[in-house]
Amino acid sequence: MKLGLLQLNPLVGDFEGNTQAIARAARAAVAQGAELCIAPELAVCGYPPHDLALQQGFVAANARAVQALVELSADLRCGLLFGCAIANEKPWGKPLHNAAVLCDSGRVIATKRKALLPTYDVFDERRYFEPDYTPCVAEFRGTRLGLLICEDIWTDESLLGRLDYAIDPAAQCVQSGVQLLVNLSASPWGSGKHRVREQLVANAARRTRTFTVLVNQCGGNDDLIFDGASVACDAGGRTVARLPLFAPDVAVLDTAGAAPVAVWPADDLELEVHALVFGLADYFRKTGHTKALVGLSGGIDSALVACLAARALGPANVHGITMPTRFSSQGSVEDSRELAANLGIGFEVVDIDAAFEQQRQLAGFPGGLAEENAQARLRGLVLMTRSNASGALVLATGNQSELAVGYSTLYGDMCGALEVIGDVPKTRVFEMARRFAEIPDAIHTKPPSAELRPNQTDQDTLPPYDVLDRILAAYLDERMSIEQMAARGLDEALCRKVVRMVETAEYKRRQAPIVLRISGHAFGAGRRMPVAKKLV
């Protein structure tokens, strides 16, 4: 059978636009001989819909789109399999099902309701959807298809460890005699996740001895970045198709014959850069904005954000503003100017020292940290006022390490629409920045400093970033206790200090802008820690 793999980039809530995108992609696949076209999970409404799913008219809008696609299947003379939301007809349970509809020749052949609903990390599907554990096996033009939706295939204990589920939907389908397993997916990316997903498909195919295909969504939706990377494996677990990373695509796969398989890039750091650019570009496109403002401090974080923004939006759409005070070095101002010139972005210097002096007077010359933060808040005020006046969105420049321990100023450098590198540890920021030739050497080599008091460096109050990031990775990603970290060889007292900083700063992290997620564990909306709690 010839399968059309429709790797699409839907816009959440754009039922008409998404339906048209499915139709365009299906026509392109049919022109290449496709007999069955497969679109991703919830391709009709976009994923994740969040509380949009609770609004009146959501189900009706899905139903209208389903009807349009059913009619399209008659016009194209091709089967269509696509994800949508449907009403739960039972008098109990959640109001919706996360579903897949299979249609052909103008009629619905089968409706699959998702069995395994993730409720962890960034996922909250049990808030909206009712599970249905009934296997869905459909006869399509002489082939028995087993239909699965995303999490339904995440049941490989050997690969994933402890599972959240006691059933294996793929195995259930195979027990009913299917010849082809099809998974509609909206699986967000984290570094290396495309390889995990491919291994899941390969293991499922090998375990069930069934040709298995997974079609994944691509695109940025708020904090989540979907990489696409759709994949197919034959009954022996051999990969026979890979679609591109971070790009919509239409491909036709013949399940009866092998074809050359694309090679995905092996450079994880470059993929992380690509993911951030992709997510940043889609955030602006899908929210209807075109221009960005970046506060350029002369440091590595703002330099990296400016580079990412210039690549994502085009240099003409990015404007950098350097806002020195008496503590800012001339080198930082000139480094920022050189960076902007290298990138070809807009640039200006707005001296805020006089305003800082007035602020000191108004506050009664508080000194210390209060005066340091006052400078950051003045910079946030300038950027947000410019944003209000021009419609350009402010990009916050904090990295994960500093955001985690509260080393970012609330209502200051945390101002913005998007925290572009908020999921990137500081040590990774340095590595990532080396990929951009536009960043002046001086920015790479200077000691990290907020320049809010004389001769200040980050290491005055923080451990070296390589040490800090090891502690944060153990605590945030591996969820280790202080005792476990100490057993690994990390300094126990330092671990306790860092963990306390993280937990004390939780109220600030809650107020951070949307954080683009590229790691295995969400540091933005997916991290849900109480603010009021006992500290270590």
What keyword list fits this structure?
536 residues, Nitrilase/N-carbamoyl-D-aminoacid amidohydrolase, Rossmann fold, 3 domains, six-stranded mixed beta sheet
Radius of gyration from the CA trace?
A: 25 Å
> CATH homologous superfamily name of the largest domain?
Carbon-nitrogen hydrolase
Sequence stretches where pLDDT stays below 50 over 5 or more residues: none
**Which percent band covers the strand fraction?**
15-25%
What's the architecture of the largest domain in CATH terms?
A: 4-Layer Sandwich
Residues in helices, as a percent range = 25-40%
Count of structural domains: 3
The structural class is: alpha/beta
Strands in their spatial order, largest beta sheet = 5-4-3-2-1-14
Instruction: Provide the CATH top-level class of the largest domain.
Output: Alpha Beta
General form: elongated
Largest sheet: 6 strands, mixed
- What is the CA–CA distance across the termini? 59 Å
CATH topology of the largest domain: Nitrilase/N-carbamoyl-D-aminoacid amidohydrolase
Number of helices: 17
**How many strands?**
20
Descriptive account of the structure:
The chain has 536 residues and is α/β, with parallel strands linked by helices. 37% of the residues lie in helices and 18% in strands. It has 17 helices and 20 strands. Helix 7 runs parallel beside helix 8 (330-343) and helix 7 (300-313) crosses helix 12. The longest helix has 23 residues, at 368-390. It starts with a strand and ends in a 21-residue tail after the last strand.
